[in-house]
Amino acid sequence: MKKLNAAIADFEPLAFDSEAASRYGTLAALTVEQGRSPKPRQMDLMIAAVASVHELPLYTRNPDDFKGPESVLLVVAI
């Protein structure tokens, strides 16, 4: 709990706003183009949309979950 409270104090959250919602639609469409369903990865794509709108990389242990959106999202495998 200490680490969570420290992170909350140190960082300001980025909102899922109308721009992120629009980007989510783009990411979902790119996912579909790869023959994959965006439905089971909705939350991941919402987080990715926020990162993309703010031109931030998305760090993930599951980079294969983000095949397709590479044109608008920098995915960094960890």
Provide an overview of this structure.
It is a single chain. This protein has 78 residues and is mainly alpha-helical. The chain has one domain (15-77): 5'-nuclease (Rossmann fold), CATH 3.40.50.1010. The chain has 3 helices and 2 strands; from the N terminus they run H-H-H-E-E. It has helices at residues 2-10, 18-33, 42-53; strands spanning 58-60, 75-77. A two-stranded parallel sheet has the order 1-2. Helix 2 (18-33) packs across helix 3. The protein is globular, with a radius of gyration of 13 Å. The two termini are 24 Å apart.
Major sheet strand order: 1-2
CATH superfamily: 5'-nuclease
Low-confidence stretches: none
Rg is 13 Å
End-to-end Cα distance, whole Å, is 24 Å
Order of helices and strands: HHHEE
- The backbone outline, from C-alpha atoms, is globular
What is the number of domains? 1
Helical segment count: 3
Average pLDDT rating: 92
Describe this protein with a few key phrases.
Rossmann fold, 78 residues, 3 helices, mainly alpha
Concise synopsis of the structure shown:
Helices cover 47% and strands 8% of the residues.
Summarize the helices and strands and which ones pair or pack.
Elements: H1 2-10, H2 18-33, H3 42-53, E1 58-60, E2 75-77
Parallel strand pairs: 1-2
Helix pairs in contact: 2-3
Organism: Glycomyces niveus
Protein name: Twitching motility protein PilT
